[in-house]
Amino acid sequence: MAHKNPSPAVDIIIEMVDRPDRPIILIERLNPPYGWAIPGGFMDYGEPAETTARREAMEEIGLAVDLVELLQVYSDPKRDARQHTVSLVYIATAKGEPTAGDDAKNAKIVNVWELPNNLCFDHDRILHDYLQLRHYGIRPRVG
Amino acid sequence: MAHKNPSPAVDIIIEMVDRPDRPIILIERLNPPYGWAIPGGFMDYGEPAETTARREAMEEIGLAVDLVELLQVYSDPKRDARQHTVSLVYIATAKGEPTAGDDAKNAKIVNVWELPNNLCFDHDRILHDYLQLRHYGIRPRVG
User: Fold this and answer.
1) Of A70, B18, B66, B131, which is most buried with the most CB atoms under 10 A?
2) Tell me, what's the pLDDT at A23?
3) Which GO molecular function, any one, fits this protein according to its record (chains A, B) (predicted)?
4) B141 in a domain, yes or no?
């Protein structure tokens, strides 16, 4: 097809349910843009989004995740400077010790009241939306 | 990029809020696969998903829609026999008279208790999920 498409990707907010207060996982990116982000990656052709989510979690932090729900889809063409990327953001749970691998240089477990600012892409906004849902039951609005 | 991606698309469940019982719109497709479906189409590069939803509704049924919420994302590689298509399904509202245009041969307004079976793609499943949310407040599960 000649039609040029945005590239679908999956990002995952992973709650560590074997710790107090369900902290989440951030990874330090090995490739540009450098900095901290939630784990994720591009969907492969022929791969359902849920499979992408489980695959990327295993590749980047070495943990099996259980998907809980879809938070929202983020598709602003400016959210990723590399190309137009449509991110499906899932909330998931995991247990154990994350180990950075593949595209992740480091992985850390962070309490939700200690999230850093200036995350990569639009992950500040995504985590803001996540906390609105987690704390107040308010789902992200669509435009 | 050499990476082959699934193609992101948007489908829209449009509730006619100027009629009793908020009936929804189905379109008869002009192109294969033939049959009835909810309106929708592929995202253009550089276009946010919400813009795709409004554009496709205007092109296919000639109505401006207000987006209410994202129902779910459907990404099973078998859901579209043409290619791997990731569908972002929005719920929206509209008023007025739909007029079939662009890829739609016909448009009709249908009560939710009179939905036909054997819609195109996985639109039977999508409308089942929609009715679970509309009638019982139960959101679609992720795999």
Assistant:
1) A70
2) 98
3) hydrolase activity
4) no
Q: How many domains does chain A have?
A: 1
Residue A1 pLDDT class (50, 70, 90 cuts): very low
d(CA B60, CA A31): 42
Residue A74 lies in a domain: yes
pLDDT at residue number A143: 67
Q: Which residues from B are below 8 Å from A when comparing CB atoms?
A: 1, 3-8, 42-50, 67-70, 72-73, 75-77, 83-84, 86, 88, 90, 139, 141-143
Report DSSP state, residue A55. H
Q: Is the residue at A17 inside a domain?
A: yes
d(CA B45, CA B60): 20
Give the pair of three-digit tokens for residue B113: 């208790």
Residues in chain A closer than 8 A to B77 (CB atoms): 45-48
CATH of the domain at A122: 3.90.79.10
Q: Do B8 and A3 count as a contact with CB atoms less than 8 A apart?
A: no
Distance CA B41, CA A104 (A): 35
Domain that holds residue A52: 7-136
Q: Which residues of B touch A45 (CB under 8 A)?
A: 4-6, 77, 84
